[in-house]
From TrEMBL:
Record-stated family: Belongs to the PPR family. P subfamily.
Coiled-coil blocks: none
NCBIfam families noted in UniProt: PPR
Keywords: Repeat
Gene3D superfamilies in the record: Tetratricopeptide repeat domain
Key word Repeat present: yes
Organism the protein comes from: Prunus avium
Gene name linked to the record: LOC110745559
Positions annotated as PPR repeat: 87-121, 222-256, 257-291, 292-326
Lineage, top ranks: Eukaryota, Viridiplantae, Streptophyta, Embryophyta, Tracheophyta
PANTHER family named in the record: PENTATRICOPEPTIDE REPEAT-CONTAINING PROTEIN GUN1, CHLOROPLASTIC, PPR_LONG DOMAIN-CONTAINING PROTEIN
Name of the protein this chain belongs to: Pentatricopeptide repeat-containing protein At3g53700, chloroplastic-like
């Protein structure tokens, strides 16, 4: 390509900037960085043309966006500073390169100069700047440098930082608000990274501001952002803030995910607000969001601590009816409160329900030996599973050609029923 430019120059005189620009871009795409630099440096002396913005931008593209060596970023800065009137692409290419090679302070300075010039960066540049600043802030917030002295030499080590450095993410937040004022938003995955970073560093209030700024933009990340912020607020037991944000979700016709309901219910149960937790549970059912074991466990523990055995028992029966197996501690807690209140018949009923569910799961998973022992134990206790569970037991053994073994055990139940 360089030889072609020399041939054109010798036959027709000056080579246009467009031709040089195409040559630089082509060489860059081929990974021939040194040759592209050579063409750029020699374009005035050998080709008789002065670089314009198109040439500068393609040179910056090669140095900053392609797989070039880190030491070339200083040369890219020198090229950038030679441009009399940098345009959007000049700044954007430079921002991507600086972030790529970890020159974040310089990147923020270049971004500030760009804003002063009234130019709007490309979305890819904004994504790189905010995304990499968030990654950098996570590292800065997680460790700190400590000087260690010994008799021979002094050296520095990195140790975990208790509580993190909440100010480390501020440059990323500042960039977000600047581009927001310019009418530009980063991509959804970058916004999520920013919100996550803020929550991890204990800046949930700042995350809420970012969330409110984007909620009217119809972005796909809004509901995921709400879930992240709700988790952070609930984990720190910020009841008022979490309640307001939860109400905001409902008022905007959003359908909170199961995780959001679980965070809110768990927080309220932890604080002993069982009435509020029950109200949220009813909203959950009304919105047809199916609860899971975590939902029920939090509520059951809270009602047991409040001494409300009726509701705790009802929730556990409902949980078993949905096929959710309770943790052993949860079952024991309900069993204990029932015994303390003289509800021995309900204890027996609960044990039968749990045994039946366990047998069903063993049959479903094909654990024939365990299923056989479980049914045998149930019969010895006088627990006889319902017909649909017996059918499941027989079908499980039939699939593996062992229906005779199952039939022998089931016949014992039939004999007991007849007597």
């Amino acid at each position: 390509m360089k030889c072609l430019l020399l041939t054109v120059s010798s036959h027709k005189g000056r080579v246009s900037c467009r031709s040089v620009s195409i040559c630089i871009r082509f060489l860059g795409r081929q990974g021939r960085i040194k040759e592209a630099l050579c063409v750029f440096e020699e374009m005035e002396s050998k080709f008789g043309c002065k670089p314009d913005n198109l040439v500068y931008n393609n040179m910056l593209y090669v140095l900053c966006k392609k797989e070039s060596s880190g030491h070339l970023i200083d040369f890219a800065l020198a090229v950038f500073r030679r441009i009399e009137s940098p345009d959007t692409y000049s700044y954007s290419n430079m921002l991507v390169g600086l972030c790529k090679f970890g020159r974040f302070e310089t990147a923020v300075e270049v971004f500030g100069d760009m804003c002063k010039s009234g130019l709007v960066p490309t979305r890819s540049a904004v994504n790189a700047l905010i995304g990499d600043l968030c990654s950098f802030s996570a590292k800065e917030g997680a460790v700190e440098k400590v000087r260690v002295k010994d008799p021979y030499r002094t050296f520095t080590i990195l140790v975990p930082k208790v509580g993190g450095n909440s100010d480390a993410i501020q440059p990323a937040v500042g960039v977000f608000w600047e581009v927001y004022k310019l009418g530009l938003l980063p991509s959804a995955f970058v916004i999520i990274r920013l919100i996550s970073g803020l929550c991890q560093l204990g800046k949930a209030e700042e995350a809420v501001k970012v969330l409110k700024a984007i909620e009217g933009k119809k972005l796909s990340c809004v509901e995921e952002g709400y879930c992240i912020v709700m988790k952070a607020l609930c984990e720190h037991c910020y009841v008022d803030e979490a309640s307001n944000l939860f109400g905001r979700m409902l008022s905007h016709s959003m359908k909170p995910k199961l995780a959001v309901y679980n965070h809110v219910i768990t927080m309220l149960c932890k604080l002993g607000n069982v009435d509020d937790a029950e109200r949220v549970f009813k909203i959950m059912n009304k919105n047809r969001c199916l609860p899971d074991g975590m939902t029920y466990s939090a509520l059951i523990h809270a009602f047991c601590e409040a001494g409300n055995w009726e509701t705790a028992y009802g929730l556990l029966i409902e949980m078993l009816g949905l096929g959710c197996s309770p943790h052993f501690h949860t079952y024991r807690l309900v069993d204990k409160i029932l015994r303390e209140n003289g509800q021995m018949d309900l204890c027996l009923k609960l044990e039968r329900k749990l045994e039946t569910l366990t047998l069903q799961k063993l049959c479903k998973d094909g654990q024939l030996e365990a299923a056989y022992e479980k049914l045998k134990t149930m019969i010895e206790k006088g627990f006889y599973p319902p017909v649909y569970v017996r059918d499941a037991f027989q079908n499980a053994f039939r699939r593996y050609g062992k229906s005779k073994i199952a039939q022998e055990l089931l016949e014992k139940i039939d004999e007991i029923d007849r007597t």
